[in-house]
Design a protein that fits this description.
The structure is a single chain. This protein is α/β, with parallel strands linked by helices. Strands 2-1-5-3-6-4 form a 6-stranded mixed beta sheet. It binds zinc ion (ZN). Zinc ion binds next to loops. InterPro entries: DTW, DTWD2/TAPT.
Amino acid sequence: MSDQPHDHPPLAEAPPDCPHCQKPLPLCICDSVTPLESRLGLLILQHPQEQDRALGTARLAAQHFKTAVVRVGLSWPSLAKALGRAVADPARWAILYLGSAKAADLDPDSEVLALTRKGEVAENQRAILKSIDGVILLDGTWSQAKALWWRNPWMLKCQRVILGPRRPSRYGHLRREPRRDGLSTIEAAGLLMAALERRPEIAAALDASFERMLARYQEVEKEHPELTPRPKPRGKPDRRGRKRRV
Ligand SMILES: [Zn+2]
């Protein structure tokens, strides 16, 4: 590891953002994404304070599906309103549950597990998961996701599911703040949509895009670190030994 400062001068002007993923253009990989047909809907609700444009994945995940919807906000009166549709039955939409239940403890063989409102493993997993029309993901930190959960009472009517991913998140050390299930939004979307549609190629496509996004991030970070801010613990010296000014 080199301790030398970067030789590259900072960009004179901030580059424009991609209108699709909203990342600064050097970080955008949108042109490599081909939208997939999917039986299930995907709704991603993003907390307004989720500001991680460089490493965020909600909009990139949504671009993989022709009918995916991303909304930024704190509350919506109903699932239908959030989706922008006339009707939608929340009981037929799966939401990633924020409670402490771990799939590995309940059923180590399942990548997706439906829970009852009491947080117990539901009977008839197969029938429940087959009846699902769409998937809802809350995009943000743990506390932001919890705020979304409590401000949208219709979420209580949704089918709760938890994930038992076979491998840890590809974020690795890039993101320090733990997400509720340890996965990025794009990884969670891939795992859920692939499991519910029984099409592993969906997860493969989203995971591959995520890896391209992370590789691009690491390339850009070397030349233009100002475009790739990384959250660091407060008050600790940075890698050049200086105290960080926040
Ligand atoms: Zn883009």
